[in-house]
Amino acid sequence: MENMLTERSNKLPRKPPAPGTFLDLDPNTKTQVGAPGRSNSEIIAVAVEFVFSQQQKDGRWSELSTSAGTPDQWVTAYILGRLGDLPANHFSPAQHDQIEKALEWLIQAGTPQGAWGCMSNTIPDADATAWAMIALRSHERVVPESATRWLLQCRRPDGGFAPHPEACRAACCQASIPGITAVAAKALGVLDSGTEGHLESWLRLAPGSDPATLAASFYVCSEVLDCDAALAPWSLLNRVCYLTVLSTPSHPFEIALLLRSLLQMRMRTSWAVAEKLRALQKSDGSWDGSPILGPAFPVAATNPGEGQSAMDRSGLLATATAVSALWMAESRPRLSFGSDLPRPRRLPER
Fold it and tell me: Which pLDDT belongs to residue 73?
């Protein structure tokens, strides 16, 4: 099963199902093809409008509320990072202004050490800092060298990354966290053997029956495949493939992460997953937030005890993730069926 990744990308494309037919993506669920009355471009456009409608006047986004506060720095960085996957000409002049305002807010929110915290009243953490670096870079802003130095201090001997530098002696800061590790590797542009080994071991041992762990696995897979600095080893990619092929998520957030992974690996099943995601869009352009987002997401690890209450209630994070995934499908449609393009540079030539 783990050798499914070797599926050739030069097979003939399958004929897309006609509108109104059903896709058997989950043995217990049948999803109708297409969002009624909306083209793919319209689906993305109204979703982007929803994301900007949730922005506050000072430029930040704040969601995923917890009893300890609102992780506005992390959420703003995450949203900017996902919007950065779309081309600049996709946004209206007003939306460009909103992005610039958010970037300025995020830059001002950084600490003197060149790092960011989950929320304005917390100490810097690796997850928020990594996403801030990704956000700045994706919108062609300079990433401070101090941010890179600070993030590297969070690396552990096992190749993973913990929420805080090793000098922090709190119990929650000592262990590497896979979700943070994957995003840190993406932010740093470094996917070395130590990091690869740490992620592969975790993906191999993660219980697939647990919904929260499965969501976290999709998150790790998506971010690992986004890291362009190095060729990921076959063993890691095969494990990613194993999870994405055998799992059938039901919530939009996890479906969007699965779609990103399948598109990166040029799996033909990505077309059906994209249609399932489109069909779940609500009339206001958003997607429902995931009920297991809190305990599964790395942000919960930086705020112990808050995992169960951290929730994407408005669907902002799910929507931003879905927009990013659907744009990937829109911009590279042939990858869903197999194409005559060169194989992904991540996969070594034989």
Answer: 94
- The radius of gyration of the chain's CA atoms, rounded to the nearest angstrom, is 19
* Higher per-residue pLDDT: 229 or 128: 128
Closest Cα to residue 64, out of 76, 78, 55, 75? 75
Q: How confident is the model at residue 349 (pLDDT cuts 50, 70, 90)?
A: very low
Question: 3-state class of 26 per DSSP?
Answer: strand
Query: Which domains are assigned to the chain?
Result: 49-332 (1.50.10.20)
How far is 81 from 222, CA to CA, in rounded Å? 13
Euclidean distance between CA atoms 278 and 25, whole angstroms: 14
Nearest in space to 219 (alpha carbons), one of 149, 300, 138: 300
Question: Structure tokens of 322?
Answer: 């879905």
Q: Which pLDDT tens digit goes with each residue over 30-44?
A: 333 445 568 888 999
The mean pLDDT of the chain is 78
Helix 211-226 crosses helix 252-264 at what angle (to 10 degrees)? 40
Q: What sections of 153-280 are H helices per DSSP? A: 178-188, 193-205, 211-226, 234-246, 252-264, 270-279
Distance CA 107, CA 137 (A): 12
